[in-house]
Amino acid sequence: MLLNHFKDLLGQNYSVVKITEDNLNDVLKLMQANTYYYSQIPFPTPSLDTCRKDLTALPPNTDMKQKNYIALYKGHDCMAILDYIESYPSKDIVYLGLFMLHPDYHHQGLGEKLIHIFIESAKASHFSGINLACYEVNTIGYAFWKKIGFVTEKACIRQIDGVSYVLLEMYKSCL
């Protein structure tokens, strides 16, 4: 239901496509173009294998019916991707696992516009809020989420390859 609201609010200037094996190369190109993000977070540079794993990656106690992994296109250009889980961690919450905008579209207000449409879509679908997590070292991403009105609820430490990273759990009400 959220996806239908999102498509309706987005309008006809963009197409929304489920990410599958067929468009995985577009997703990979978008991810590889985001060099700042991958220089900050503790994950390897994306590859077709890592993108393929994202197709089925789920948090605990969820299933594929809750997952939506979509690409937004303007013409033939993959300009953004969204990966979200409905009704997680509770029935009335949407968990936004990934939002990434192609760098060619940065600093134009498009990222904010897309997330505001996503928030309105969640509200229209009767979700009370949106959760996400942002690595503290991703200062640009953290500033983006704060600007949109997400608030940090708590910080936790995530160990990756023996290095500790601060992960900020954020929330935005849809009410």
From TrEMBL:
N-acetyltransferase domain residues: 14-175
InterPro entries per the UniProt record, alphabetical: Acyl_CoA_acyltransferase, GNAT_dom
GO molecular function: acyltransferase activity, transferring groups other than amino-acyl groups
Protein name: GNAT family N-acetyltransferase
Source organism of this protein record: Zhenhengia yiwuensis
